[in-house]
Structures are given as C-alpha cells and as structure tokens.
Amino acid sequence: MGVTVQVRDLDPAVNDRLKGAAAAKGLSYSEYLRRELTRIAEKLRIEERWREVTAAHRLQAEGQAITAVFDRPRLDIPMDEVVQGIREDRDSR
Fold first, then answer.
1. I want to staple 32 with a disulfide (CB 3.0 to 4.6 A). Which of 3, 22, 71, 75 is the partner?
2. Among 21, 37, 40, which Cα is nearest to 29's?
3. What is the pTM of this model?
4. Is residue 1 packed enough to be buried (19+ CB in 10 Å), middle (13-18) or exposed (0-12)?
C-alpha cells in the first residue's frame, strides 16, 4: 500500500500550474503528482548510480580496484523497456 504525502505552504501559483499540467494531460491531480514524484525519484536513483560509475572510472584510471563500486546485482532490464522509459519521460516534458 502506498503512503500519503502532505505538502504545506505550497505557493498558490505553483498549485495552479500543477493542476493545469495535470488537466492538460487528462490526469487527476493526484495521479499527475504521483507520476512526477516517481519520475523525480527515478532520476535521483540514476544520478546516484552515475556518480558511482564515474567514481569507479576515476579509480580505475588511477589504477585502483573498483569492485566495491560495482558490487550491485544486475537489473537485467531489456533494452526496449529502457528505450520506452526514456521516450515516455521525454514525452512527458
């Protein structure tokens, strides 16, 4: 089950812009915010992974071991799903 999030002191103009964006996409306000928050969280995960990979490459260039940085399970996401996700994100902007 999901969690409930409450945002206090949101500028009314921001609220109006978000509601307008939701309406333009034919989504409820809640669904629009859920999708946007999910997109933000995914972007943060990708940025975190990018920092790890660039740190690993820097260590590798310095001749140091990089096994700890890559000590993660493979995700095994098919390429077509990755491409579809990228296209959906681009289309949502």
1. 22
2. 21
3. 0.55
4. exposed
